[in-house]
Design brief:
361 residues; four-stranded mixed sheet; 12 helices; Glutathione_S-Trfase_N; maleylacetoacetate isomerase activity; GST N-terminal domain-containing protein; 49% helix; Glutaredoxin; Thioredoxin-like_sf; binds glutathione; two-stranded antiparallel sheet; alpha+beta; 3 domains; glutathione transferase activity; disordered N terminus
Length: 361
């Protein structure tokens, strides 16, 4: 009797509050992966689970998303490691794109189509690389924009509880791991210990900048006043300076209606997750239409920031029937919109968006 051939599954470590994790979930949907192909494992960042010794053995950077994939043709017991971890969103999405195609015989029950999401020409590939690099650059970081997301005291009161709770959860976890190490309950390398100490000090710095965030201006101590001013300055630098430049550059690079033109590509799954996060941080909603979502984002960036309204879309409108025009719909030109508004409307219509972010109402 032959032993059943068990093929190990890929494992995606993710957090549903992490923008880049959601980009990978969108990619899984767009590529038509079945539930039997990838196991999803939650790593709760707000509880510092990404710093656990177990997770750091998988990804020493302690970041999600992380995709652990079995090596091909290495299902022999003598292999030291039969898995490899892909720890970068761009590489994970590229891997998922290549691993499921019409030609591939994967162990799947999914009959969904497997469209190629990577651009086919050199020119489009270069454009894809450039946009992906732009939205993964430091000034575009969803984490930075989450940490520094209030330019006045009223907004600070609203946003600081969730930011503080997140940071306190991380700090607690780091202290716990460091204490376990101190008590010799766990054995970790000097490198890991240093990693924890560095993360703890940056977390504490961020927490200090939110010190007294719940107090009204007149009740602040001198230190509290200074910390608040600095926090507002950092928010301004992040949104009004850094992100504004990224958004302006991005909207010049977009083709429309998708990032690279008429067809969805890998760029769009990165963009969808990133844009969704920015609009959410700006107080917008998944159910907003493109113009509403992007207007919220523009207002939240501050300093009178606006994007060029350079996307002209034609909507079909029924023209009166006549002998020269039997039934052909005429087209009406809508007022020009920012390209990002068109992209938002295009992405929110997709089943992948609705599955990952919730159905549009
Ligand atoms: N360059 C990495 C960044 C991933 C990343 O920073 N992920 C965030 C969540 S969106 C994270 O895991 N942060 C945890 C931490 O830095 O402690 C990528 O593109 O995959």
């Amino acid at each position: 009797m032959s032993t059943p051939h068990i093929i190990p599954k890929a494992v995606l470590y993710y957090d549903a509050r992490s923008a880049w994790s959601l980009a990978v979930l969108l990619a899984l949907e767009e590529k038509g992966y079945g539930k039997d192909e990838v196991d999803l494992k939650l790593v709760n960042l707000s509880k510092g689970e990404n710093f656990s010794p177990t997770f750091l053995r998988i990804n020493p950077k302690g970041t999600v998303p992380t995709l652990v994939v079995p090596f091909e043709n290495t299902l022999t017991p003598d292999m030291e490691s039969r898995y490899k971890a892909i720890t970068d969103t761009e590489a994970i999405i590229a891997f998922l794109d290549k691993s499921r195609s019409i030609m591939s015989h994967t162990h799947t029950t999914s009959a969904a189509p497997a469209p190629a999401l990577s651009p086919a020409t050199i020119e489009l590939s270069a454009m894809a690389k450039s946009i992906i690099a732009l939205i993964h650059s430091s000034p575009a970081s969803p984490e930075l924009l989450f940490y520094f997301n209030a330019g006045d005291s009223t907004t600070l009161k609203t946003v600081s509880p969730s930011v503080s709770a997140f940071l306190k959860g991380r700090k607690g976890a780091l202290e716990h791991y460091l204490a376990e190490d101190e008590a010799n309950e766990i054995r970790v390398s000097e490198k890991t210990k240093k990693f924890w100490l560095d993360k703890k000090s940056t977390t504490e710095e961020l927490l200090a900048s939110l010190d007294e965030a719940d107090k009204s201006e007149p009740d602040l101590s001198e230190g509290g006043k200074k910390a608040r001013e600095e926090y507002f300055e950092k928010t301004k630098a992040a949104w009004e300076v850094g992100l504004a430049l990224v958004l302006t550059k991005l909207s010049k690079e977009l083709v429309g209606p998708f990032a690279l033109g008429e067809q969805i590509s890998i760029v769009d799954v990165h963009l969808a997750a990133w844009l969704h996060e920015l609009v959410t941080l700006s107080g917008g909603d998944t159910r907003d239409n493109g113009i509403a979502a992007i207007s919220r984002l523009e207002a939240h960036v501050g300093g009178g920031f606006t994007l060029a309204k350079d996307a002209v879309t034609a909507v079909p409108a029924m023209a009166p029937r006549s002998s020269s025009n039997p039934a052909t719909p005429a087209t009406a030109i809508e007022p020009p919109k920012p390209k990002l508004a068109v992209l938002w409307d295009t992405l929110t219509e997709r089943p992948s968006w609705q599955k990952v972010f919730g159905v549009r109402g």
